[in-house]
């Protein structure tokens, strides 16, 4: 009888756990967060467009359609002609009657690279004008994998004169590039300490290399535009980690970019990677903004990035095992682990699906600077990987922005300038409260806003935390004084060496056993 009762209790317990896990949805992570305002969310779709441009080899002919593309009414399509029907004489086309605008439209798509008969004829007309709202004339620099030599993912530098921004956008992981895997594998739990916390070693080295390569270019552009433009670092997935750590370095070494004020530095981490410890994630929430779409798996799992992408082809299995493991780890233990990495900064969560509902709903955006429950639960969802795609994040963020604009016009109760000032005050208060909350929870190395202001690391002296040699860093990090400082040039000498042509190259890679 006792065995029967014990078995029954176990079955009930397992059933309850399974039910809670299977009914946990992405929107539960932010159900208590307030909604974002139109003014603070407005840059995010635009930044997504710029990040998407990194994926396009030719900005004049982008391969993605505009986010607010026109939607046809199927009932008004008079005729649709396929490749088989044209017999290679023309691309497929449709004839469409637009009753709303009193137009008869004949629409023809661009080049299909699979169709050999059309390849040469349509080579210069891959797509029509449109695509991103990105002016090719403002594209200052495009850097490819060959030019970075594996030190960083590809990136672009773009000057948005319409919004007074200088944007450095970094692409995400490319599964076909070995250099991206090497960057991810160059890490180990507790290996790299920086600025009083822990960070991903490989991403930090990539960020340092990127700053050394482009600091003079960014400084020149900023000074040529009146020293008033915002400096925006943006990235997706792998690139978000590099952009976030690059922002941390720039904020502490603003003289590298001509003494740019902290309030002119911004980072947008789209589908963010866990790249820094909790104290740093909260500390830099005033300059780093992370954007998460519903069930995205990457910000939610503390499993090292290298393990995630080594298991990318069996990701559902990995997510289930991580979900099972994290269930039995107390929340307090997670918070007290200084080596545990988190998604950085203020979080913007785009929610578009509901429990036991089919289809997508008009997206809403929630925002907060969470200390506890910072996307700590894996969501067992068929959308966990698709929500990580930059194209979906860009589309849903555009929809969310349009909805915010509509709501703001309907609920205006005070002058726009007054509303903006009040929101800025609220954002500052939320950051201060988050810092104090981190201190009250005894988060390792956490400091309140007042303590940060008094820290010697915030002065104008060009200083940085000692990251040490690669071979000894992993062994000495646990005992190194978090206040140890070193000169920037010494930091660069420790991590890089110059070849015969004078280019900076990473020193020997971490052994494969890491």
From TrEMBL:
Annotated ranges, domain Fungal lipase-type: 167-303
Annotated region (Disordered), positions in chain: 449-487
Domain of life: Eukaryota
Compositionally skewed regions (Polar residues) per UniProt: 456-466, 474-487
Annotated protein name in UniProt: OLC1v1011583C1
Organism: Oldenlandia corymbosa var. corymbosa
InterPro entries, A to Z: AB_hydrolase_fold, Fungal_lipase-type, Mono/diacylglycerol_lipase_N
Record-annotated membrane-spanning stretches: none
Upper classification of the organism: Eukaryota, Viridiplantae, Streptophyta, Embryophyta, Tracheophyta
